[in-house]
């Protein structure tokens, strides 16, 4: 049993040595195949179009960046609510990740950059290439509100331009949306104030009309009793009666005073000076009607760091391709040598059979 194992081990060693010797006899074939594959790989490395990658990170703006957006806003009752950084940045991210922006960039930037070089390709194929070249992804699991915009292009400067432009286009769309909503809120507030002002003015007008009716009735009573002037009452009773010359005792003011007061009320051009708080409401109305935040005064996102011009391409990976080609070439050469030996053995065995 032991002798059988030893003979088997010796046989395996002999077979391995014989295989190595046969491969060595075919070394020219092996190294020739490896060299051919290696030359092809080197040619690909130096002839392939290099791809450069530019990447930019975007994050939420600061409170100071949106300060002008909250001009005239407060958390007080009846006021416009304060816009938070999260609300503004969510609007930016919604536009950044939208298909409408991706399509707009494809039409306005990507297609014009081709200069008619691939006019034979369909729109779907071009769009698929574009989606691979320009990507928007979350920067990391620990920072879900931080996004990266990546462009892989043959031109390093163009890659930098694209990621910067894409971030800015999303910012412009978000600004338009935020400012439009802010303007709409201001106009709604102005409309509400206008209705409130009209309501209090109408109430004041009706109150004046009611007052005139009451004074006319008092005037009729005063005339009926021949009271032209307020009666002269001495002592503490005079003070008490004077203080109560309204309501049913209004006639005690006398017909002359009542006629003058009625005439004054009828000729009054406006009740506005007599309405409490009206001027503040009118000032608020004028403010919200004219409220218009300049787009350049707010920022809806921030770039996290500068966009650097890539100096080395990410593709092709020269060293990896050359090493892989060398290994693959040797492997193919060995396979070719083994096949050549097998074919040669069959040729030798054939005539003897």
Automatic annotation (TrEMBL):
Coiled coil (UniProt feature): none
SUPFAM superfamilies per UniProt: Bacterial polysaccharide co-polymerase-like
Keyword field contains rRNA-binding: no
Name the UniProt record assigns to this protein: Chain length determinant protein (Polysaccharide antigen chain regulator)
Cellular component aspect of the GO annotation: plasma membrane
Entry annotated with the keyword Membrane: yes
Membrane-topology descriptor: Multi-pass membrane protein
Subcellular localization, as worded in the UniProt entry: Cell membrane
GO molecular function: protein tyrosine kinase activity
PANTHER family reported in the protein's UniProt record: FERRIC ENTEROBACTIN TRANSPORT PROTEIN FEPE, TYROSINE-PROTEIN KINASE
Residue stretches spanning the membrane: 28-47, 319-343
UniProt entry keywords in alphabetical sequence: Cell membrane, Membrane, Transmembrane, Transmembrane helix
Species annotation: Pseudomonas japonica
InterPro entries assigned: Bact_polysacc_biosynth/exp, LPS_length_determ_N
Domain Polysaccharide chain length determinant N-terminal: 12-108
């Amino acid at each position: 049993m032991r002798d059988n194992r030893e003979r088997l081990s010796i046989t395996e060693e002999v077979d391995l040595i014989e295989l190595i010797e046969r491969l060595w006899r075919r070394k020219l074939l092996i190294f020739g195949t490896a060299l051919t594959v290696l030359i092809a790989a080197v040619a690909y490395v130096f002839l392939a179009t290099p791809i450069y990658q530019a990447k930019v990170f975007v994050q939420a703006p600061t409170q100071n960046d949106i300060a002008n957006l909250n001009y005239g806003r407060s958390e007080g009752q009846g006021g416009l609510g304060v816009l938070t950084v999260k609300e503004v940045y969510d609007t930016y991210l919604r536009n950044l990740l939208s298909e409408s922006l991706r399509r707009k960039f494809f039409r306005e930037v990507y297609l014009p950059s081709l200069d008619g070089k691939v006019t034979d390709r369909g729109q779907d194929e071009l769009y698929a290439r574009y989606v691979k070249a320009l990507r928007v992804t979350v920067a990391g699991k620990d920072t879900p509100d931080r996004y990266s915009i990546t462009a892989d292009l043959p031109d390093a400067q163009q890659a930098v331009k694209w990621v910067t432009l894409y971030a800015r286009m999303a910012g412009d769309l978000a600004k338009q949306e935020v400012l439009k909503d802010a303007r709409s809120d201001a106009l709604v507030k102005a409309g509400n104030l206008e209705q409130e002002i009209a309501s209090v003015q109408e109430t004041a007008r009706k109150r004046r009309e009611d007052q005139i009716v009451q004074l006319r009735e008092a005037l009729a009573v005063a005339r009926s009793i021949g009271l032209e002037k307020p009666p002269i009452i001495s002592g503490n009773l005079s003070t008490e009666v004077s203080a109560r010359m309204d309501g049913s005792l209004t006639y005690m003011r006398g017909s002359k005073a009542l006629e003058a007061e009625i005439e004054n009320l009828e000729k009054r051009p406006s009740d506005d000076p007599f309405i409490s708080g009206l001027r503040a409401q009118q000032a608020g109305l004028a403010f919200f009607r004219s409220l218009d935040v300049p787009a350049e005064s707010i920022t809806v996102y921030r770039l996290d760091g500068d966009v650097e011009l890539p100096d080395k391409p990410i593709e092709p990976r020269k060293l990896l391709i050359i090493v892989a080609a060398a290994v693959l070439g040797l492997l193919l050469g060995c396979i070719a040598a083994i096949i050549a030996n097998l074919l040669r053995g069959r040729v030798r065995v054939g005539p003897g059979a």
